[in-house]
Amino acid sequence: MDQTSGKILHDTLAIHVIELRKFLTTEAELAAATPIERWVFWLRYADQYDADTLKRLFPEMAMYTATESLETIFLKTEDKQMYDSSEKAQRDRESLVDEAESRGEARGEARGEAKMLRETIHFCQSILGIVQTPIADLELLSVDQLDKIATDLQSQVRGRVT
Prior knowledge:
Elements: H1 35-45, H2 51-57, H3 61-128, H4 135-138, H5 143-161
Helix pairs in contact: 3-5
């Protein structure tokens, strides 16, 4: 009887606690090992063997089935890792495309702003009767430099109008 719950436990269930590290059976000793020693060896070292070797070392039906289950889990895990890698690669490609588009948009905006500032400079220079700065010279300037020139010229135009 379970003392905590008061539930009656039947003889159909047995619980064993096994300290795996206390079993030191080697592969060479498996043929003479007890069933529990064989299972402990399988539990401790199955990950170090391929499925065919495990099936050869443990031909018992229960252990054969356990080995096949382990192989299925491994294959599913390997498939999942491949799928995850593929998904990551796809996300990385999409991220690179997004980044390239953003950079392209930023460059396009900067070019558009620079073009508008060059036109503003030429317009102000024509109103003021100043010789227009060649486009090639203006194209060498940064947006900040163009903005400063355009702002100064606009101030001069406003000063003439008032």
